[in-house]
């Protein structure tokens, strides 16, 4: 080989080494990061601030470029000072006096109407209210001996019987109501005894909501510790006795308020009363406009079903917390997410059912919840994992994790509502120079908890990997190939010269 040829080869070899070194340095000089630009969406409240819907990045992985997102629907009041109720306690107090035997239709007594409505009421409550306990008391005025001549148990709390103690067992409550519909009727009306018995059944909890639902058709004519004339029947027109019954029963009702017990009273079939009886009713219960305590309905028999199943039901729910029904949530993903990220659920939805994967047509997932009860929270978590950390098209582009979330639901009156959450957590694939990485393994951006940084400005998930720049890498390869080709051509020409 001539000296000229050796010089040419040495020059080519030097150029190739320099270019190869440059290419290697360039390729390793940049790594990619998955930055959490915005961790949470806005908290969007529902109608009347009843609850809210929101989204949040709850976890991320700095090695694989993935984020975990939680979609939350909460049926809780906006009032942050609200004390969470540990349960709701409801006790039915049902009049079982002889007057309840009166017919309100061809085949139904007043007691039948009350009990059937109470059963449907109970079924709805167990569906719509969390941590619910229900009890059942029936009451009357006095017992008589078998011959019917002497009065027994008058003026005592024993004329109120516990048929079902507070329980969260709905079938047990329903069975108790059914058994009451077959029991014998009794004499008199000791409303005072019924309320006292119910009051003693509540738990000692200071955070539970407590209700007595009093269902009666009688004017109170007995009360606890109020005696009647010895050796015979009492007469409702006896002024002194009547005054004692009124005052005692009214005082017992007022005591419920001091114990934070809600009273809802329904009086039926009392539309045609004497003036004395009207005075007793008003003295004890007040009026619908100004009740002694709670809520008072003084109705005719035809309204029993509607008042119990609708009015009283809504009254309870208003205080406990309204459920929302026929709940559907549709989460819309942008094309950048649908095309460039792998999607998977993290466990199951806490309530309801979701579609298996993102719909390829409209890029959505659908979450259906039958009913979200008062003070109940529903959550759904899913993971987004970037398919290619070297995707130059996504580089430095802020990506919303969803376009929007559309919530539809019905309230207890079956009114339709639509809520649209337009804000979203955001992420970004960005580049960072190699020398800016912390090679010692220390975390310089704050304490890291599962990939979510404590840095106040933004959360950064780092995932190392080469990110070649478009055109430059290819140019280097072409240059090297060209040099090699020129070298081979030059060498062949020199050999030709040598042969000549």
How are the secondary structure elements laid out?
Layout: H1 3-28, E1 30-38, E2 44-45, E3 52-61, E4 66-74, E5 88-95, E6 103-105, E7 108-109, H2 110-128, E8 132-139, E9 143-144, E10 151-152, E11 160-167, H3 170-180, H4 191-199, E12 209-216, H5 239-258, E13 261-268, H6 275-285, E14 295-299, H7 304-320, E15 324-332, H8 335-340, E16 341-345, E17 353-354, E18 364-372, E19 377-386, E20 397-400, E21 404-410, E22 416-421, E23 426-433, E24 448-449, E25 452-453, E26 459-463, H9 472-499
Parallel strand pairs: 5-8, 5-12, 12-13, 13-14
Antiparallel strand pairs: 1-23, 1-26, 2-3, 3-4, 4-19, 6-7, 8-11, 9-10, 15-18, 15-21, 16-19, 17-18, 20-23, 21-22, 24-25
How is this structure best described in words?
Helix content is 29%, strand content 31%. The radius of gyration is 39 Å and the shape is rod-shaped. The chain is an alpha+beta fold. The model is unreliable at 24-28, 80-84 and 436-472 (pLDDT under 50). It contains 9 helices and 26 strands. It has helices spanning 3-28, 110-128, 170-180, 191-199, 239-258, 275-285, 304-320, 335-340, 472-499, and strands spanning 30-38, 44-45, 52-61, 66-74, 88-95, 103-105, 108-109, 132-139, 143-144, 151-152, 160-167, 209-216, 261-268, 295-299, 324-332, 341-345, 353-354, 364-372, 377-386, 397-400, 404-410, 416-421, 426-433, 448-449, 452-453, 459-463. A 6-stranded mixed sheet has the order 11-8-5-12-13-14, sandwiched between helices. Strands 2-3-4-19-16 form a 5-stranded antiparallel sheet. Strands 17-18-15-21-22 form a 5-stranded antiparallel sheet, with no helix packed on it. Helix 5 runs parallel beside helix 6. It folds into 2 domains: 3-77 and 323-463, Immunoglobulin-like (Sandwich); 88-320, von Willebrand factor, type A domain (Rossmann fold, 3-Layer(aba) Sandwich), CATH 3.40.50.410.
């Amino acid at each position: 080989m001539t000296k000229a040829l050796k010089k040419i080869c040495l020059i080519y070899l030097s150029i190739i080494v320099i270019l190869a070194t440059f290419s290697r340095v360039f390729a390793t000089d940049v790594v990619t990061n998955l930055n959490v630009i915005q961790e949470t969406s806005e908290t969007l409240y529902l109608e009347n601030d009843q609850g809210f819907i929101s989204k949040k990045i709850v976890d991320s992985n700095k090695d694989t470029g993935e984020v975990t997102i939680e979609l939350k629907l909460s049926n809780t009041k906006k009032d942050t000072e609200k004390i969470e109720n540990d349960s709701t306690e409801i006790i039915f107090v049902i009049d079982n006096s002889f007057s309840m035997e009166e017919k309100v239709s061809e085949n139904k007594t007043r007691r039948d109407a009350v009990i059937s409505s109470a059963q449907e009421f109970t079924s709805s409550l167990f569906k719509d209210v969390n941590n619910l306990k229900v009890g059942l008391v029936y009451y009357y005025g006095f017992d008589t001996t078998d011959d019917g001549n002497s009065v027994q148990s008058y003026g005592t709390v024993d004329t109120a019987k516990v048929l079902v103690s507070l329980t969260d067992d709905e079938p047990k409550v329903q069975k108790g109501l059914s058994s009451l519909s077959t029991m014998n009727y009794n004499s008199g009306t000791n409303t005072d005894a019924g309320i006292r018995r119910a009051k003693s059944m509540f738990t000692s909890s200071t955070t539970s909501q407590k209700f007595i639902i009093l269902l009666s058709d009688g004017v109170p004519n007995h009360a606890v510790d109020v005696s009647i004339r010895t050796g015979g029947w009492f007469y409702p027109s006896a002024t002194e006795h009547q005054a004692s019954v009124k005052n005692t029963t009214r005082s017992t009702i007022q005591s419920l308020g001091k114990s934070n017990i809600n009273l809802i009273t329904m009086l039926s079939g009392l539309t045609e009363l004497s003036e004395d009886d009207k005075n007793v009713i008003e003295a004890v219960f007040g009026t619908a406009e100004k009740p002694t305590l709670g809520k008072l309905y003084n109705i005719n028999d035809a309204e029993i079903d509607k008042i119990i199943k609708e009015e009283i039901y809504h009254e309870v729910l208003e205080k406990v917390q309204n459920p929302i029904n026929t709940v559907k949530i549709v989460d819309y993903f942008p094309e950048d997410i649908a095309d460039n990220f792998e999607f998977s659920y993290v466990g199951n939805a806490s309530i309801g059912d979701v579609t298996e994967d993102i719909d390829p047509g409209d890029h959505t997932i659908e979450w259906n919840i039958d009913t979200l009860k008062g003070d109940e929270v529903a959550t759904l978590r899913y993971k987004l994992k970037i398919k290619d950390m070297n995707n130059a098209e996504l580089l430095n582009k802020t990506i919303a994790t969803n376009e929007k979330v559309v919530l539809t639901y019905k309230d207890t009156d079956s009114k339709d509502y639509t809520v649209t959450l337009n804000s979203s957590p955001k992420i970004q694939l960005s580049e960072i120079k190699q020398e800016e990485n912390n090679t010692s393994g220390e975390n310089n951006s704050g304490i890291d908890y599962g990939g979510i940084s404590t840095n106040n400005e933004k959360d950064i998930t780092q995932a190392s990997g080469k990110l070649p720049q478009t055109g430059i890498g290819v140019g280097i390869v072409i240059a090297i190939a060209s040099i090699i080709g020129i070298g081979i051509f030059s060498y062949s020409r020199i050999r030709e010269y040598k042969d000549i």
